[in-house]
Amino acid sequence: MRMFRAAALMVIGLAAVSPGRSIAAVAEYNAVIVKTFPHDPNAFTEGLLYQDGFLYESTGRNGTSSIRKVALDSGAVLQQYDLDPKYFGEGIVTWKDRLVGLTYKAETGFVYDLSSFRPMSDFHYSGEGWGMTKDDTDLFMSDGTSDLRVLDPANESEIGRIHVTCEGRPIKNINELEWIKGEIYANIWLTSEIVRIDPRTGVVDGLIDVSNLLTLASQYRAVDVANGIAYDAAGDRMFVTGKLWPSLYQITLSPRQSGADPCHGLP
Q1: Are the C-beta atoms of 39 and 75 separated by less than 8 Å?
Q2: How many domains, the chain?
Q3: Which of 59, 132, 186, 261 lies 20 to 30 Å from 114 when distance is taken between CA atoms?
C-alpha cells in the first residue's frame, strides 16, 4: 500500500498542473476566536501539536531552541529539553512513543522518547527543515519550498513528495503543518494565511486569514509571524499561535466571499 502511495505522490506535482486540468475553487475563511489561552511570549514557536490533553511545542533560534510539553489552560511548561546551541530547532511530530524533530539548516533531525524527551537517535536530510505532521501511515515535512516531503516513520527516510500549488501556481514558504480531517493545514511564512492542502493532489483548496489574531497578539508587545497549528481530534478543536505571541487561540472558521484571485498574496 505504501509503495503504491509513494509512487503516486512522486507524480502529484505533474498531475496538479498538467495542461487542460481544471483548477478547483479556493474556499476562503476568517478565523473566529472561540477561546484564548496563555502562551509563553518568549517562545519562538516552530512546531505545535496536541496529544493526550497536552500541547507539545518546539521553539527555534540558536541558543533558545527546545522541545516542550505544555499545559493548555495555563500555558505552563511542564517538561522541556534544550537543544545544543548550535541547532536551530524546527517542526516536531509524534509517532507512537517517539517525538521527531527537525533543525533548520543543520540537515539533521532528532528522535526523542516521548515520555522523557531523552534523545534516542538522529537522522539526516538534504536542505532545510521547517514543519512536520503525520497521518496514519506517513510523516510529512516542509522545507521552505513548494514541495512537502513524505517520510517513512520507521526510519525518517524520504519516500515521496507532494508538490503544492494554488490555482496552478507553486506556493513556497510552507512552514508549520497540521493534519486535520484528511487534509494538511500549513502556515505560510511571512504571511497571515494558513493554507489547506489536499494531500492527494497538492492543491490548495482553502485559505484562512488569521491577521486578526496577529493584531490581537501584538497589542502590547512586539511579536513575530503567525506559526503553530494544533488540532484536538477528539474535541474537534483547532488551536493557532505565533512566534513570541503571548496568547494561543482556539478558533473556528467562518466562510467569507472568495476574491477574484485568492492566491495572489501567497509567495
Answers
A1: yes
A2: 1
A3: 186
Q: Give the confidence band of 5 by pLDDT, cuts at 50, 70, 90.
A: low
pLDDT in tens, 58-101: 999 999 999 999 999 999 999 999 999 999 999 999 999 999 99
Residues 6+ apart with CB under 8 A from 70: 40, 54, 55, 56, 57, 76, 77, 78
| pLDDT above 90 (res 21) | no
Domain that holds residue 109: 2-18+34-256
Cβ pair 207, 155 in contact under 8 A: no
Domain presence at residue 26: no
CA atoms within 13 A on the CB side of 98: 17
Torsion of CA 131, 47, 192, 259, to 10 degrees: 50
Task: Give the 3-state secondary structure of residue 126.
Answer: coil
